[in-house]
Design a protein that fits this description.
UDP N-Acetylglucosamine Acyltransferase, domain 1, GMPPB_C, binds guanosine-5'-triphosphate, six-stranded parallel sheet, single chain, 360 residues, elongated
Length: 360
């Protein structure tokens, strides 16, 4: 499980918490992946850590609480994706020909993991990649395949129209034959996407792509993060790790332990109200994630926004597509729109200007 990235696209949420540990639908995102891995028959997880490594072990420990065996390997310097995989090789118990599954830890996916593994084995591949199709592949690594599914090229984040040769992209979940991992260079940064995969193709290795069109979302950006969380709450993708809501009067929201939501609040579109958070009268919260201990003032309106732990949103303030860092305070009567990010512990005073808005 690759968990060492800095999660720069999700700042300031990732200033205090590594991306895989950010709460999505009530639990650290990683818990959704781990329960799915377990359901697919995986029994042992090795975490490749770099950024804020201690957070993972503190939360998951030896894994027994989750019915899994867990180990942690910390990089002294971040080794990038391929280097991170190589760095855990001596903790793998698999024989040279055995399959090892590798996960990017920011992907929410309904991929049938057992089927991916079975395909890898029956086709005799050296490496098998889960591929998905997206409408706009420019932000991803393209992976064209031949008629039989064998990968013909890797094109990272193509920008020129002529480079967009397929809509199949690397979905961030792989099966490697153990001995392929042992062949990755040690002690330096290696990108699995830019170096290892193209190198394997050039060396004539059997690299298979399995296109599967189940639910798939890369939670790396704020927009995708709120969408993924809402999809879990609304059941567009199911995860056994989603906790029960404590507030049945909002069927389209997840309200966690100790949260207080006033009677007149409008709450829905897959929102999550974190542990001990408070939402005051007449506020409206749609498609948003409110962190533990945060508060939303009277009459505030939040859409598709993320409010960090302990952050405070003032009365009548409007947030749309905004990220508020942990401990920040946005004063009353402000209007913050698409793409605004408020740093952790920042203080925005009350606004003296009146904005009109429609809380419906
Ligand atoms: P951004 O900075 O927002 O791009 O996020 P990120 O740092 O997570 O990078 P990216 O999404 O490209 O990373 C893909 C996967 O590889 C994620 O699961 C990361 O945690 C992981 N990853 C990236 N770099 C490293 C690294 O140097 N070491 C380890 N162990 N994992 C890494």
């Amino acid at each position: 499980m690759l968990v060492g990235g800095k999660g720069t696209r999700l700042r300031p949420l990732t200033v205090n918490t590594p991306k895989p540990m950010l709460e999505v639908a009530g639990v650290p995102f990683l818990s959704h992946m781990l329960t799915r891995a377990k359901a697919a028959g995986i029994t042992r997880i090795v975490f490749a850590t770099a950024y804020k490594p201690e957070v993972f072990e503190e939360y998951y420990g030896d894994g027994s609480r989750f019915g899994l065996e867990m180990e942690y390997v910390q990089e002294v310097e971040p080794l990038d994706t391929g280097g991170a995989i190589r760095n855990v090789a001596d903790r793998l118990q698999s024989a040279p020909g055995d399959p090892v599954m590798i996960f990017n830890s920011d992907i929410l996916s309904g991929m049938d993991l057992a089927a991916l593994l079975a395909e890898h084995e029956t086709r005799g591949a050296d490496v098998t990649l889960h591929l998905t199709k997206v409408a706009d592949p420019r932000a991803f690594g393209l992976v064209p395949t031949d008629r039989d599914g064998w990968v013909t090229a890797f094109r990272e984040k193509p920008q020129r129209p002529e480079d967009i040769v397929t809509d199949q992209i690397n979905a961030g979940c792989y099966v490697f034959r153990r001995e392929i991992i042992d062949g990755i260079p040690t002690g330096r940064r290696v990108s699995v996407e830019r170096e290892t995969f193209p190198g394997l193709l050039a060396a004539g290795s059997k690299v298979l792509g399995v296109v599967e069109q189940s639910y798939w979302l890369d939670l790396g950006t704020p927009g995708a993060f709120v969408r993924g969380s809402a999809d879990l709450v609304l059941g567009a993708i199911t995860s056994p790790a989603v906790p029960e809501s404590t507030c049945p009067r909002y069927p389209e929201a997840l309200v966690l332990d100790g949260a207080e939501v006033a009677e007149s609040v409008k709450l829905g579109a897959g929102s999550t109200v974190g542990q001990g958070a408070r939402v005051a009268a007449d506020a409206a919260v749609y498609g948003s994630v409110l962190g533990a201990g945060s508060s939303v003032g009277e009459g505030a309106v939040l859409r598709d926004s993320i409010v960090g732990r302990g952050a405070r949103i003032g009365a009548g303030t409007v947030l749309e597509g905004v990220v508020v860092g942990d401990g920040a305070s946005v004063g009353a009567g402000n209007e913050l729109l698409q793409g605004v990010r408020v740093s952790c512990d920042a203080v925005i005073p009350d606004s003296s200007v009146r904005f009109s808005h429609d809380p419906s």
